[in-house]
Design goal:
four-stranded antiparallel sheet, 17 helices, 593 residues, single chain, disordered C terminus, Heat Shock Protein 90, Helix Hairpins, 11 strands, five-stranded mixed sheet
Length: 593
């Protein structure tokens, strides 16, 4: 037991007390530090009444302090930002530790975040590390296998030697013969003989070797690898009738050990050369494979909103990078088309809205000058403003319709209805409105489709109005409806002024108009917005249909609409119900009359 004196305890208590007090003394100055002065500067405010009384003084005095205050504030802000960043970093590390990440993993993440390695370096290092482990494993496996192979061959030779010596001893009935001595000397092995009590009787090298040691070292293990100093082999012989003797051979493994030690540095150097050569090859290969990516990066850097014509190079071997470049080019094509469409859309909309706004502004000026006193000018201005307002409303609705279609948010109420009734109704309304053209119709009954009746009627009205607009008075317009195996086919043909081959591919573009002579031909009272055919095409395509146009200048134009048919059961049900309703309505009219 160790006895501690009272003085020793007092000294220990004093030392511990001093060590505990020191942190307190160091913390006190930190609590009463510079931040106290900025707080006073921020809190101090000048009363309003004092500011009014000493306005001249308050304006002149801060001239010196104002020059220093921004620097202090800036320094304080930078210090605050540093503190916030440190606190955020510490909280991030604490969260990582709380989630179970070790200190080494957190430190590794911090080290990697400070460095920016390119992909070539990462590929080279990763390839080198894997190759180093692979070659190291192969080198170790070959080294161990070669060592044990040498030991195995030496052991097999020693077994043959012990069997040969045992046969000679039993043949000559003695364990010490010149033949055995010569053979042992030739094989460079040590020869031992023991009696049945394990007492050493004979030794070729005059060394006293216990029999237990010979048996213990008769097997090898990894504890003695790669230095196997000796291997032993034992056997039994019967001499002089029934006397049992043990014979043992010991082989020195110095030659094999030296061979192994000589091959180790050679193999290590070859492995190192192979690793370095492979790393260099991996670096070149990584740079070669990264070259297209660097080229893509430079091409993408040159792209901007005003320069979307650049495309990535897709030539060369077909691989993942080529697929990526091809996909990226497709995306750029879509972006460019969308951007140009949006740009053209804004430009055309601004141009179309400028005219009605100018008209409204002009008539508003007339009202401001003379409209209060002149009822005729007042009425004319109001009618013109209402007309232009209707035009603007129609234009805005058309623009919203097209914008919803572009965004993919356009919705239509779809149901199964009889297209024959819809076409017949449109023809009837057209004949009532227009009496200056000849309308010939041929409508096949019981043509049923699945879609939006209101939208399809709007599209049909657009095509009919287009034919009326560009067909001279007393011209002929033919409207027909028939069905094929899978489609309902609507044909609108006129003998109007026609469309030129140059304008034909663009007639469905937004705000597109052909030559001015065509534009001014028989415009209606509201004029046109240039969006009619675009809206009609959207409606037809939303129903899964398509449009075919044939036109010849000064001969006429033919629009052919293809719409998918409904099922046969729906077709019979809808058309029969509509026919019964029409018959019942006509019967009621006859009864009333």
């Amino acid at each position: 037991m160790k006895i501690i004196s009272k003085d020793t305890l007092q000294q220990n208590s004093q030392s511990t007390s001093t060590t505990k007090k020191e942190p307190v003394r160091t913390r006190e100055p930190i609590k009463v530090s510079e931040p106290s002065t900025p707080k006073k500067e921020v809190v101090i405010e000048v009363p309003k009444n004092k500011l009014k009384r000493d306005e001249a003084v308050s304006v002149s005095k801060p001239s010196h302090t104002n020059t220093r205050t921004p620097e202090k504030v800036k320094k304080k802000n930078t210090q605050g930002d540093l503190k916030e960043s440190r606190m955020a970093h510490l909280q991030n590390e604490k969260q990582k530790r709380d989630t179970g990440q070790s200190y080494l993993s957190v430190s590794y993440d911090r080290f990697v975040s400070l460095l920016r390695f390119n992909i070539t370096f990462k590929l080279t290092v990763g390839y080198a590390i894997r190759l180093l482990f692979l070659i190291g494993f192969l080198f170790f496996a070959i080294y161990v296998s070669f060592s044990y192979y040498l030991y195995y061959e030496a052991g097999q030779d020693l077994k043959e030697d012990i069997r040969y010596i045992a046969e000679i001893a039993q043949t000559e009935n003695t364990y010490d013969t010149p033949t055995i001595s010569n053979y042992v000397a030739y094989k460079n092995v040590d020869y031992y003989v023991y009696d049945q009590n394990y007492t050493l009787l004979f030794s070729s090298d005059d060394e006293t070797l216990a029999f237990d040691y010979a048996l213990a070292d008769s097997e090898y293990s990894l504890s003695t690898f790669p230095n196997f100093p000796n291997i032993f082999e034992t056997d039994t012989i019967l001499l002089e009738g029934d006397k049992l003797y043990y014979v043992a051979l010991r082989s020195d493994m110095t030659i094999e050990t030296n061979t192994i030690e000589a091959t180790f540095p050679i193999g290590f150097v070859l492995s190192l050369v192979l690793v370095l050569t492979s790393i260099r090859s991996a670096q070149k290969m990584a740079k070669k494979h990264m070259k297209p990516i660097l080229s893509m990066t430079e091409d993408v850097k040159d792209m901007s909103a005003n320069n979307l014509n650049t495309r990535l190079n897709v030539s060369g071997t077909k691989d993942e990078l080529k697929d990526l470049a091809f996909t990226f080019n497709q995306m750029l094509d879509d972006i460019q088309k969308s951007y140009e469409r949006e740009k053209q859309f804004v430009s055309d909309a601004s141009h179309e809205l400028r005219t009605p706004i100018a008209v409204i502004k002009g008539y508003a000026g007339m009202l401001n000058r003379w409209g209060k006193d002149d009822p005729a000018i007042l009425d004319e201005s109001i009618q013109a403003i209402l007309s232009e307002t209707d035009n603007m409303h129609s234009l805005v609705e058309s623009l919203l319709f097209i914008a919803r279609n572009d965004k993919g948010t356009l919705k239509m109420d779809l149901n199964t209805f009889c297209l024959s009734d819809l076409v017949a109704e449109t023809i009837k309304e057209t004949k009532l409105i227009d009496t200056q053209h000849t309308l010939n119709d041929q409508v096949e009954s019981q043509v049923v489709i699945h879609g939006s009746a209101d939208k399809l009627k709007q599209a049909l009205r657009i095509f009919v109005d287009n034919s009326l607009k560009y067909t001279p008075d007393e011209g002929e317009i033919k409207i027909s409806l028939r069905k094929s195996e899978k489609h309902a086919i609507i044909t609108l043909a006129d003998n109007g002024i026609g469309i030129s081959k140059e304008d034909l591919p663009n007639i469905f573009d937004r705000f597109y108009r052909a030559d001015k002579s065509r534009t001014k031909m028989k415009e209606n009272q509201h004029g046109g917005t240039g969006l009619g055919l675009s809206i009609a095409r959207i409606i037809i395509e939303q129903h899964g249909g398509r449009i075919h146009v044939d036109s010849e200048l000064n001969v006429g134009t033919t629009f052919t609409l293809f719409l998918p048919l409904a099922s046969s059961e729906q077709m019979a049900e809808v058309c029969s119900s509509n026919t019964n309703q029409d018959a019942q309505g006509s019967l009621e009219k006859n009864t009333e009359s």
